[in-house]
Amino acid sequence: MSILGLDIGTTKVAGVLLNAKENRIIKALSLNSGAGISTEKEWEKIQDPGIILDKIQSILKELKKHTPEPIESIGISSQMHGYLYVDKTGKAVSPLYTWQDSRGAVLLESGQTAREIIREKTGHSIFAGYALCTHYYNTLQGLVPREAEKIVSIGTYLGMVLCGSAKATIDPSEAASFGLYDITQGEFFLDSINTLWGNSDFLPERVPFYHSMGRDRDGIPVFQSLGDNQASFYGTMRERVESVLLNLGTGGQVSLFMQNLPGTLKGLEVRPYPEGNLIVGSTLAGGKSFDLLVDFFNQVLTFFGASVSKKEMFRMIDQQDFTNPQTPLKVKPFFNGTRENPALRGSIENIDLENLTPYNLLYGFAEAMVKELKSLLTANNLESRVSLERVVGSGNGIRQNPLVCRLIEKIFQTKLIISDLQEEAACGAAFYSLEGVKRTN
After folding, report:
1. pLDDT digits (tens, 9 = 90+) for 319-376
2. Strand runs (DSSP E) across 113-268, as ranges?
3. 254 CA to centre of own chain
């Protein structure tokens, strides 16, 4: 029995073909999305949805060639919080505004930001980068395309294109990621949305988990896209739901499953998940901060007329036998801000006459990434409520970085289990779609 999962990430797109009975990857493919659109505005982070779809569909076409048996289902994992506008025919009429776009925190002529106005008018807080915050900025600035009918996630858009459908839908995982969503009721705060826009007609239709969007041109059922955080958890933690999941990709996340909603959580979100909720803490830098440092080293080498490939740099870093520095650097990894304060920036402290070395910088950056994730649990006293006998790691920022792995075990004081499935989000989407088939039949 073959199933297929597709994942649209921030910097890459991926797909997996799985043997569901054997829990085995038959074929996995990934490509750099190359969809970023350069702009003069530092806070603007947008992508070309046409490029994304061309690449993910080429992956889908190739994967279909690698199984002689019928494919049972197609699942989709989608980068969260971002959105694009579609017209009444379901065609994209805008770029994809990603979760990294911080226009919602840009000062307007009124002296306030879009997120501040939303909080003032509705009493609800929303992060910059969340769809409804970005959309409100665009509304205030007259940037909404005239032909726009709905806002949809990039995952939903892929599903619409695969099924040849103009119907815009959204499940709880992505609806919550748009902001202004009531977790307890499973619905948007429609009164607040009507206050801000006068109506809620631009929202996609809310559908439950395991919703079938239709069938693709080969007759394969396609299921509503799942948020990439939930999809990664679904793929990685199917038999380890009681553990904590750490994911380091472009950003970083710590996630744990709870059936019942906890009380107030500082710096954490409650996200809808089948049969319960995920408690999630997110960092904006994550694995990207380590990339930032390697790029810096590369620029230094170039400045002095030398050249080492990025791949070779990472290989040399992996060969280092890192030990705890005697006088460590103190790195604050807020190079891309935080959810609460997008304008916050990182720093390197405790520099003396001897410790400003590549070795100490590498150690300090890796340690800072892990400590930031651990602090989200500590600040909410969640260590006493969940088992930390082991943590599960996923994402290339963990899988390809032995130093980070060692620091996770040291800082969390536990054993790290690295997911045995690569492309966790795509795998999770595939398994999720198979469950959707079972529930449909």
Report:
1. 888 888 999 999 998 887 776 777 789 999 999 999 999 999 999 999 998 998 888 8
2. 150-152, 169-170, 181-182, 187-188, 205-206, 212-215, 221-223, 226-227, 244-248, 252-258
3. 12
H or E element in which residue 144 lies: none
**Would you give the DSSP letter of residue 251?**
S
Biggest alpha carbon distance in the chain?
A: 69
User: Confidence class of residue 240 from pLDDT cuts 50, 70 and 90?
Assistant: low
C-beta of residue 248 within 8 angstroms of C-beta of residue 404 = yes
Token pair for 380: 């909410």
Q: Percentage of the chain with pLDDT > 70?
A: 96
Which amino acid is located at 269 in the chain? E
- Name the amino acid, one letter, at 3: I
pTM: 0.82
Please state, in angstroms and rounded to a whole number, the distance separating the CA atoms of residues 395 and 386: 22
Rounded Cα gap, residues 225 and 86, in angstroms: 16
- Which is more confidently placed, 144 or 289? 144
- Phi, psi for 139 (deg, rounded to 5): -65, -50
What sections of 64-171 are H helices per DSSP? 114-122, 131-140, 154-163
325: exposed, middle or buried (C-beta count within 10 Å: 0-12, 13-18, 19+)? middle
Contact (Cβ atoms closer than 8 angstroms) between residue 235 and residue 428 = yes
252 strand-pairing partners: 248, 283
The residue length of the chain stands at 441
**Are 301 and 308 contacting, i.e. CB atoms less than 8 angstroms apart?**
yes
Query: Which backbone phi and psi does 2 adopt, to 5 degrees?
Result: -105, 140
CA distance 209 to 259: 16
Question: Quick one: angle between helices 228-236 and 424-440, nearest 10?
Answer: 80
Closest CA relative to residue 378, chosen from 411, 335, 339? 411
